[in-house]
Write a structure and sequence with these properties.
The protein has 440 residues and is of the alpha/beta class. The protein has two domains: 3-167 and 320-363, Periplasmic binding protein-like II (D-Maltodextrin-Binding Protein, domain 2); 170-318 and 392-439, 3-Layer(aba) Sandwich (D-Maltodextrin-Binding Protein, domain 2). Helices cover 41% and strands 16% of the residues. It contains 17 helices and 16 strands. The strands form five sheets. It has a five-stranded mixed sheet, with helices on both faces. β1 (36-37) and β2 (40-41) form a beta hairpin. α16 packs antiparallel against α17. The longest helix has 29 residues, at 3-31. The chain is globular and about 70 Å long. It comes from Paenibacillus allorhizosphaerae.
Length: 440
């Protein structure tokens, strides 16, 4: 094709894409989905610029937990952009992003979360997507503002380095049969941790040779995320754990796990809830999609609003999105953005919500209403309760946080198990973290 014909073809393609964009947008308005809604105009249908239609293969790194490949990526991308082939590189031992970068095999696209971003910055794989966002007319107003802010605060120079496709949530799962057995009312929405602990005291007992536990915090991270606390001060690069905020976190863990008989007995509280069926309440992350087997095995369960600190009512976790990044080294960034366009489209997000019960990071209220709609074992569950809380703002992460958290958590368990008092535990953790920073 000569240059003149090439320009003519590009103009035709641009006209067709703009026409198709206007048609799909109008259809969306007529159907009452997408288009103009409570959030304003949905610009995702305004049509990206014409780009190459030459065949291209993109390597993408993610796990099946993060992405339902067939319904969220492979099929919809193939349908809309038949020239793009996705080569899925499943995560696993020796196959994480660090390993692939070290081997000179960096994928074009890879999934991660905000807590990983300091490490990704060290690998120098994050790119500034804002020029591509502008080029492809990506409507960032579709997203929950806190999600975009969380990605920027964790990125390079407050830049947007990826687009979110899944937002974590927290819920209080509970075993209705244990509550019924001991005549204790079910958890209510709006409970504080103090309220949950009082319920736990009534439910922690042994009957018929079976030891029942009332409550487990599930994870150390789960109870400190709502406080938006730093482990390392990003301004001074020094430990920031020997203070009242962290005492509050350590104290909460102690009050839960020191209830007589409520000491942790299994390594996995999630298994204790789902399989052993001996844990009455489990405040945890979104594992709705994994409750099918437990439901079929007879677990009589429901969910309530996540408990909150008294001074931080209706707050859970932190803004914790899964993000798809375009690697800085990718030679096919336009095609990668087309994949992101499909992945984050209303159509794909809605199917994700309905079929996997994962929460889209969009303002659109229909996404929350649709959560788990096509999953029969979730029918009748009080999922609406979860949305009475909102996530806490993210702190600024540092490159030291992952290693520092290991030492802080070790001190937490030393305190829980009465090996150290709280002041000693936090002081020792601070000293150890500062030593790690000096040797980094």
């Amino acid at each position: 094709m000569n240059q003149k014909n090439g320009w003519i073809m590009a103009a035709i393609l641009l006209t067709l894409s703009m026409t198709a964009g206007c048609s799909s947008s109008q259809a969306a308005v007529e159907k009452g989905t997408g288009g103009k809604g409570a959030e304003g105009t949905n610009k995702e249908n305004s049509g990206p610029p014409a780009v190459s239609t030459e065949p291209v293969t993109l390597n993408i790194l993610a796990s099946a937990y993060q992405v339902d490949f067939e319904t969220m990526l492979i099929d919809p991308v193939k349908k809309k952009y038949p020239n793009i082939t996705l080569n899925v590189m499943a995560t696993g031992t020796g196959k994480n992003i660090q390993d692939l970068v070290a081997a000179g095999n960096t994928p074009d696209l890879f999934a991660g979360y905000t807590g990983m971003m300091p490490a990704l910055k060290q690998l120098d794989v994050l790119d500034n997507l804002e020029p591509l966002v502008k080029k492809f007319r990506v409507d960032l107003d579709r997203y929950e503002p806190a999600v975009i802010d969380a990605i920027k605060v964790s990125g390079n120079n407050n830049e947007l380095s990826g687009l979110p496709f899944n937002l974590q949530l927290n819920a209080l799962y509970y075993n209705k049969d244990i509550f019924d057995r001991f005549g204790v009312p079910y958890p209510k929405d709006g409970m504080t941790w103090d309220d949950a602990i009082e319920l736990a005291r009534k439910l922690t007992r042994t009957e018929g040779g079976v030891a029942y536990r009332g409550l487990d915090p599930e994870s150390f991270t789960r109870i400190f995320y709502p406080r938006s606390v730093n482990i390392v001060d990003p301004k001074t690069n020094k430990a920031a754990v020997n203070n009242e905020q962290w005492k509050t976190v350590f104290d909460l863990g102690k009050r839960i796990l020191s209830i007589p008989g409520n000491e942790r007995k299994e390594s996995s509280p999630i298994n204790e809830f789902r399989k052993s069926k001996t844990l009455a309440m489990l405040p945890s992350y979104n594992f709705f999609s994994d409750m099918k087997e437990a439901s079929e095995s007879g677990l009589n369960w429901d969910v309530a609003q996540y408990p909150s600190y008294k001074d931080r009512p209706n707050i859970y976790g932190m803004v914790d999105p899964w993000i798809m990044f375009v690697a800085k080294t990718s030679k096919h960034k336009d095609a990668a953005m087309q994949v992101l366009e499909v992945l984050t489209s209303n159509e794909v997000m809605l199917q994700m919500a309905k079929n996997t019960a994962k929460l889209p990071p969009l303002k659109n209220p229909e996404m929350k209403k649709a959560l788990g709609e096509n999953m029969p074992f979730l029918k009748g569950k009080s999922i609406v309760s979860v949305f009475k809380s909102r996530p806490a703002p993210n702190p600024s992460f540092t490159k030291y946080d992952t290693e520092a958290q290991k030492w802080l958590e070790a001190s937490f368990w030393d305190y829980i198990r009465d090996k150290k008092d709280i002041n000693t535990a936090l002081r020792d953790a601070e000293e150890q973290i500062n030593q790690i920073i000096r040797e980094y």
